[in-house]
Amino acid sequence: MGLPGSGKTYFSERLKDKLGCAHFNADKIREMSNDWDFSNEGRERQSKRMKTYSMFEKQNGRTSICDFICPTKSTRSCFNADYVIWINTISKGRYQDTNKIFEPPSKVDYLITEKNAEKHISKIVKILNEF
Known about the structure:
Blueprint: H1 8-19, E1 22-25, H2 26-33, H3 40-59, E2 64-67, H4 73-79, E3 85-87, H5 96-101, E4 110-112, H6 117-130
Parallel strand pairs: 1-2, 3-4
């Protein structure tokens, strides 16, 4: 998770390649669903949609990465991730509405504070393989 422009997709694509798992990008899922509603209800619906894709993989014994902002405690609660990586590399994203509602998470499993995906990939792969 992280603000728009923080490096979530760049990081997720590289982590996916190392883990050999599914990768669900929120923008692509919104596009497939033709749902560009960014109201609170729309964001919760998107969180639940992302969870559905992720749960399908999990129920079939596979790992997945869900790459999305998940800006509020409520959207994070809807998604209920097994492992949370917060890409906290910027203080403001490119969308004011998201900046206004973004609530920093109170608990994360792994925090990234600089745009250097390669530095963190091997550490996270090791952690997730033991998870």
